[in-house]
Amino acid sequence: MATRSRHPGFQPLGSPEDIQRGSLQLRGIVFDMDGTLCEPQNYMFRQMRTALSITKQTDILDHIHSLPEPEQTEAFRKIQDIEREAMQNQIPQPGLAALMEFLDQCGLQKGICTRNFDAPVEHFLEKHVPNHVKPFSPIITREFKPPKPLPDGILHIARAWGAIDGGIVPKGLGLDRFLPVVMVGDSVDDMAAGRDAGALTVLLRSVGKGQSEDLAIDERTDVVIDRLDELISLLEADSQLTDYNDDDVPDFKRPDSKYLLIAFHDTNQDIDIDVADMLFRL
Ligand SMILES: [Mg+2]
């Protein structure tokens, strides 16, 4: 199977015109909901698999979609009951409000792409997102098919934002199609969907809460954060990257450093490729 190219990154937000040549200008951020906007409730998935008598290896939605009626409707009812109960215990992720306010100030779009159904999403937005934050739009839920890990939901959002050239949603993988969009999530489905859509992928790390440690070093994960509001400094224009020269080795060269989301190759043409490549690797 072909490997998709890494996303080239973005222009620094608010950067002056003269360093903006050749790189993408970020249009918006797509968020997963469970485990990303709100803290993980992975017990939900164990309860669902028990209710459906399936193992961890089986995708819950794929399994339900494979059932004939009336079993399919009954299976959806079972998992919705679990999700309705879990939504009463939703806890917003640390840094959520600060990040949303920052995105609004920057005029960036924000959308949601979740495999959950409408009620828990509406509950979360009503109870846990401050009223002054501009609405998420579009919001892709279980009604939309096909779900993540396929990229169609993210592509649909990107088209709604006018972020796809020509406005026609591409079919399948485009190995060199890059969208001016970030996908933030906590699961392999989010990283796979984001990468295949052509977005830059950001993993919100939650190891110890059901997330595999391998996901942070997965080839499809571009950036790793531990809190949502870490994205603010990664997106801001006054990054050390723009000041880079050979005498001033910046933090991002450390093997343990986080990536920066701003474009690098195009604004620093004389940097050797090994250094540039480090930006996109943990
Ligand atoms: Mg999730």
From TrEMBL:
UniProt-listed Pfam families: Hydrolase
Gene3D superfamilies: 1.10.260.80, HAD superfamily/HAD-like (3.40.50.1000)
InterPro entries to which the protein is assigned, alphabetical: HAD-like_sf, HAD_sf
PANTHER family: HALOACID DEHALOGENASE-LIKE HYDROLASE, SUPERFAMILY HYDROLASE, PUTATIVE (AFU_ORTHOLOGUE AFUA_4G13290)-RELATED
Protein name per the record: Uncharacterized protein
Species this protein is from: Gomphillus americanus
